[in-house]
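The records we work with from here on pair a chain with its fold. A complete example follows; check for yourself that the lines match position by position.
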Amino acid sequence: MLKKIKKTVKYLNENTELRPKIGIILGTGLGGLVNEIDIVDSLPYENIPNFPVSTVEGHKGRLIFGTIGGVPVMAMQGRFHYYEGYSMKKVTFPVRVMKLFGVETLIVSNASGGLNPDYEVGSIMIINDHINMFGVNPLLGKNYDELGPRFPDMSETYDKELIAKAVTIGDKEGIKLEQGVYLGTTGPTLETPAEYKMFRILGGDAVGMSTVPEVIVAHHMDMRVFGISIITDMGVEGKIVETSHEEIQQVAAKAEPKMTHIIKELVGQI
């Protein structure tokens, strides 16, 4: 795996002169942040050695290098999911590449289902913790000491300083921000009412099919992490309605400008 990571990093070094310290992963329907990036280079996933290719609608599939407000960033427009059939090593491979390329802070976004009855469709939630319900961990198998410790501590996975900065930005701009626990599960089925109820009992405020694997790997490599979710449907008794991936994308797109503004301002303060 180390050889593959280094080969991919070598390719990036040869195809862009930008050296960003901030990496961004854009979730379902949340690719609009790209419009805020002054793009320097754009590399399709299929051209990048060892990179998987996103198969999900709403995930374009390119690695973007540019600046936001003059700050160099690299952004994944389209992520990889465990439910696509990729191994956890493949799902998290881009995060490994980001770190060895010099990225120190990872910002992850996603569209998720609301479990907290105080939320509503379109709410924006800052992730302050997570629950791994994938039934698998991306760190299983051989540990590479060059990448991180065998048993990483997870007591403070989401950076408190970045969370505080985002809250301040939200207050200043009049954008209501929730804070809560993101519960990650495999998908690709949306949850049953009984599953929604169980996940709420377990302590989840939102549920989705991504983010947790990437965050675990980022934390393993000592990267600062900031996570943010847009609530696109509700898994609360009495508020559960039949929904589709297309509807989730539409809701995410409506709430995205607020999320984009938070991330844009946050990037300028990192």
